[in-house]
Design brief:
By secondary structure, the protein is an alpha/beta fold. It is built from 12 helices and 8 strands. β1, α1 and β2 form a beta-alpha-beta unit. The mean pLDDT is 97. It binds 2-phosphoglycolic acid.
């Protein structure tokens, strides 16, 4: 069994003082009891440096929410893997549906970013998932297979070990509508089967596949009990120390 990973995606929330407050509260909770779970938080870029300082000597790992595929250049407003690395970033969320939808990120661009993150020794949390329309028209498996194959194009077996996959059905993100544990498990096991076809079954067993989309303390335990769910990518519920901590605890059981 994989050690589970619970990662918090702060999205565009928390200014400097709020970052200080949330991390301090989280550290206090996790100081008294740190379960056998990997924990990461992904604050906005403006809080990366402060978060990195506050997380020194803590088991909570630092992540970012996005990056550009180039190392440097004339890309106004963008941030590179090299820059993130210099602040001690260990994970980066790539291909999130909000990036795909609002910023028109393509599978090819996401694939370039994944490769660049690995080059800088940052673990990509590679997100994929279907929209409600795609699910209702029976295209879920086709959509996630396509995103998976394109996202992993040209990535070696060795590099796959550094990638975390996050299945996030778009219809469940921020909507309060969670996929049932059975719906999520069905897609997770499909993804694992596809990874095994693209690589081999041994590596497919070891790749962590997180579930994301309205994970809360109330539903986390049942989701994490599924055999192919190796943790969660948490949005709304990670913005309060207490609910994020409850989800981390649920990942240990
Ligand atoms: P949510 O977001 O938990 O608020 O649904 C998850 C995500 O977008 O990563």
């Amino acid at each position: 069994m994989q050690k589970k990973l619970v990662a918090g995606n702060w999205k565009m929330y928390k200014d400097k003082s709020e970052t200080f407050e949330l991390i301090s509260q989280l550290k206090e909770k996790l100081n008294s009891f740190f379960p056998d779970v990997d924990v990461a938080i992904c604050p906005p870029f403006t809080s990366i440096e402060l978060a990195g300082e506050l997380l020194k000597n803590s088991k909570i790992q630092l992540g970012a929410q996005n990056m550009h595929s180039e190392v440097e250049g004339a890309f106004t407003g963008e941030v590179s893997a090299k820059m993130l690395k210099s602040f001690g970033v260990k994970f980066v969320i790539l291909g999130h549906s909000e990036r795909r939808t609002y910023f028109k990120e393509t599978d090819e661009f996401i694939n370039q970013k994944i490769k660049r993150a690995i080059e800088f020794d940052i673990k990509p949390i590679f997100c994929l998932g279907e929209t409600l329309e795609e699910r209702e028209s029976g295209k879920t498996f086709q959509v996630v297979e396509n995103q998976l194959t394109k996202g992993l194009s040209g990535i070696s077996r060795i590099d796959l070990e550094k990638i975390v996959i996050a299945y996030e059905p778009v219809w469940a993100i921020g909507t309060g509508k969670t996929a049932t544990p059975e719906q999520a498990q069905e897609v997770h096991s499909f993804l694992r089967k596809k990874i095994s076809e693209l690589y081999d079954s041994e590596i497919a067993m070891r790749v962590r596949i997180l579930y994301g989309g309205s994970v809360k303390p109330e539903n986390a335990r049942d989701l994490f009990k599924q055999p192919d769910i190796d943790g969660g990518l948490i949005g709304g519920a990670c913005l309060k120390a207490d609910s994020f901590y409850q989800i981390i605890l649920a990942a240990q059981d």
